[in-house]
Amino acid sequence: MTLNKHTWCIIMAGGLGSRFWPISRTDNPKQFIDVTGVGKSMLQLTFHRFEKICPRQNIVIVTGEQYADRVREQVPGLLPYQVLSEPLRRNTAPCVAYAAAVISQIDPMATLIVSPSDHAIFHEDKFIADIQQAVQTVALREWIITLGAQPLRPDTSYGYIQFNEKPSLPRALNLHKVVTFTEKPPLEMARQFIASGEFYWNAGIFVWQLSALRKAYEEHLPAIAESFFSLGLSTPWEELERVYSQCEAISIDNGIMEKAGNVHVMTASFGWSDVETWDSLYNVAKHDSNGNAIFSSNVFTYNTRNTLIVTPQNDNKTIVLEGLDGYIVAVNQDTIMVCNRKNEEMVFRFASDVELKKLIDNK
Amino acid sequence: MTLNKHTWCIIMAGGLGSRFWPISRTDNPKQFIDVTGVGKSMLQLTFHRFEKICPRQNIVIVTGEQYADRVREQVPGLLPYQVLSEPLRRNTAPCVAYAAAVISQIDPMATLIVSPSDHAIFHEDKFIADIQQAVQTVALREWIITLGAQPLRPDTSYGYIQFNEKPSLPRALNLHKVVTFTEKPPLEMARQFIASGEFYWNAGIFVWQLSALRKAYEEHLPAIAESFFSLGLSTPWEELERVYSQCEAISIDNGIMEKAGNVHVMTASFGWSDVETWDSLYNVAKHDSNGNAIFSSNVFTYNTRNTLIVTPQNDNKTIVLEGLDGYIVAVNQDTIMVCNRKNEEMVFRFASDVELKKLIDNK
Q1: Angle at which helices B237-246 and B222-229 pack, to 10 degrees?
Q2: What is the DSSP string of B19-85?
Q3: Collapsing DSSP states into helix, strand and coil, what is residue B195?
Q4: Which of A56, A222, A281, B20 could bridge across to B24 with cysteines, CB 3.0–4.6 Å?
Q5: At what angle do helices B222-229 and B210-220 cross, to 10 degrees?
């Protein structure tokens, strides 16, 4: 299969990933970690997936300045424009504008796939087919296609997309016009969304032509469009710092998707999870007959059920668990965490407590 | 205080310690481990305790051949006769006979304190006073004094000593003649023992003159007496192997104490635990306000109660526990164990399962 030279991918790899503590931390966020125990980091998995969709040199990774070396280490041999460092965190709208502006200098005819770097995709063949359908669809239309995943539970940490019942095209039953976007609804609302059957989870993957993207930015985020699309292929760092320090911090969902009238949602036929929390990893993982999800090579469980067990791939520690039901056991080089799955939001507190103690100990 | 040059101590340090898995194992049994997190191994604690009772050169450690180097490493500067290696495991009666035979070559007037190497003693000053009283008492009498600890619960893993209500001596109300020894009684029997008020736990510490010891062996274990007391100060290894391979494997409790008519029990005024199991360590440990016993410098607990947490002293791992009640969390360099305290006897199974997998993996 030849890859279309006008298909480009923007991978957003600037996340801090503190929800996955202790495996991911600010100095080692989730996208750089082999969360699912397959021997590749989330970023590597994402990159290799897109190598099957567009030419390797058409994949651009945007990340924080402090992570740029990490990106080049994990994906060796990238050209300079393929790793874009952001001087400041300004959410996703500036991030995508920056990458699109750089790509526009190389290929004004580009079709862009915008993707997070740290989500889990199951059934890669279906993912590739979906994305290709989206790319072909937007080639003929000034549409923004967003990928929507079938919601499995009333998760309040996800974005929800309400869609028009009528398919957008007579021959593409998996494409519907977007009616509303709702970020992180309260539980009762999430329940109603699911019960109605009119909502998808927002998978955070967008497909559109560069020209459509630019038009959308110019209409809905004119200040960002103006400062980013006037940048050249290689912008001096000071200039970039100036642009970022002056620009609004806003997500692409809030800044574009909620306002644009031409957004269509494509039903993902692949399996998807943002794997943003331990519990979401548990939910997407394979379970053994006791309901345990084990991402670790050397685990012995006894009377243990519904428990998620994660160690780094290269770690040879033996883990023996007896009498646990519904826990998260996460181990890295220097930390061991055992936490009831129901209380997984406490990892924020764990992380800050541990950091605080380190600060005090070092004083 | 000058130490009596005829007071000797035999420390039995040949245990395999598999009940403390994963911290202790056959290649690293409990006596060599800093179980209680004070920076010294159980053997070192025991040795230093006896240095306050008898001259350093009067302390003899008997251990398995494979552990002799470990002993010399942990207690440096010992003379050759102070570390006696046993070629085979033959329980405690041959072990004590061997050490007594060696000591008899140096000091026929010796008074002997026989002690395990891996028990926990609390209130060291009281321990020293008790032992000194016992030493003084046997100096004048051909008695065997065994130390008895007040039983705290119907523990079925301990030995029980039934004592005569009447004190053995008018002025020593803490000394009673022994009526029976019972090793590891069934639970119902242990309950009755405790209810009766006539029983102590057998702390496994014996005080007697060398001459009384020899007489007891000659009477109750004549074969062992004959082969061991004919040995010289430094026996060729082959000769020792021959003696051990031919001798009966029997405990000093079964072989001597249960049969001898001159055994008296002294009520220990110190705190004692054989610390033979995780739960016994939990029971003797200091508890925080949530009932947690923490032998670890870097532990964060949340909603966690009645849990024992042990890491090696020199280990800097951070341990975060949430939502555990009544567990054992034991961590060493290569293994992490979380086990319900109620099922702690399963550590035997864990150990063998882990060893088996290692064997299979290495094939």
Answers
A1: 180
A2: GGTTTSBTTB-GGGS-TTSSSS-HHHHHHHHHHTTS-GGGEEEEEEGGGHHHHHHHSTT--GGGEEE
A3: helix
A4: B20
A5: 130
> What is the ipTM metric for this complex?
0.74
Q: Rounded to 5 degrees, what are φ and ψ at B8?
A: -125, 155
A177 neighbors A164 (Cβ within 8 angstroms): yes
> B327-331 and B308-310 as β-strands: parallel, antiparallel, unpaired?
parallel
Contacts of B346 in chain A (CB under 8 A): 302, 322
Chain B residues near residue A309 by CB distance under 8 angstroms: none
Helix (H) or strand (E) holding B132: helix B124-140
Per-residue model confidence as pLDDT tens digits over A332-352 = 888 999 999 999 889 888 988
The two tokens of residue A99 are: 């990458």
CA-based torsion, B262, B263, B264, B270: positive or negative? positive
Instruction: Specify the residue for token string 């481990």.
Output: B33
Q: How many CB pairs under 8 A join A and B?
A: 101
Q: pLDDT category, B114, cuts 50, 70, 90?
A: very high
* SS3 state at B281: helix
B271 touches B128 (CB < 8 A) = no
Nearest in space to B177 (alpha carbons), one of B93, B112, B260, B92: B260
pLDDT digits (tens, 9 = 90+) for B223-256: 999 999 999 888 999 999 999 999 999 999 999 9
Q: Residue written as tokens 């053997």?
A: B43
Regions of chain A where pLDDT drops below 50 = none
Indicate whether B18 pLDDT > 80. no
User: Which residues of A lie inside 8 Å of B (Cβ-Cβ)?
Assistant: 22, 298, 300, 302-303, 316-324, 327, 329, 331, 334-340, 342-343, 346, 349-350, 353-354, 357
